[in-house]
Amino acid sequence: MLIFILLSLAVTPLRRIARFGQLVDVRRMIGVGAFCYGVAHLSLYITDQMFDLANVAYEIAVRVYLTIGFTALLGLGALAATSTDGMVRRLGGIRWRRLHRLLYLIAVLALIHFFQQTKLDVSVPTLVAGLLTWLIGYRLITWRWKRPGELPTWLLLALSVAAAALTFAGEAIGIGIAFNVSPLMVLRTAFDFDLDNLDMVRPGWYVLAAGIGVVVIDIVCARWRVRRPRKAGPTSGPVAPVRETV
Fold it and tell me: Where would a tag sit more exposed on the chain, N or C end, judged by fewer CB atoms within 10 A?
């Protein structure tokens, strides 16, 4: 479910950076897919509990990680129910957008649920947290960026480095608290990895690699857009000569 949420949040930056507006058409389908996956996840849990709905309700009420996950699922249900064109017209564009900003809170709740559900190796949840940091950071920057056009490439690179640094720091602090060691000692091990064993590569490097990949896409798409020849529009008569000015 969390992967679907990340994909949904990634549509906006990708369509802007890749200059491919048609990506927005799949965002709604991905969001509904996240809800369907969450329902399937809950259904499997109910099946594991031998369809004892009373016990399922009790477990959700008393176990914090289940309460958080179920709350995220309810939020996704509300967004899925209002994802139709009719509901957009009924709510109005402004209210609809305000409601669907709840996806950020839902993503955080789903991430907390993922961390709590993972017992030993939290490298995957840490990687997801780093990617979510990049996505939320991108939106915060675009909300404050008042200049026309897309974000400059250097700002995307700075965001990628910052998200990776926060991922390294967050992982080091978490491991330091869990095992009662110095976070600085954990940070020093970030450079001790073997490319032949990808399990030893820390999540921060993957976040940085993903960010650099986005930067490369931005550079390529920006240059392709500049070099692409413009199509000549139809003319209805003779074209007047253009005076050259110095």
Answer: C
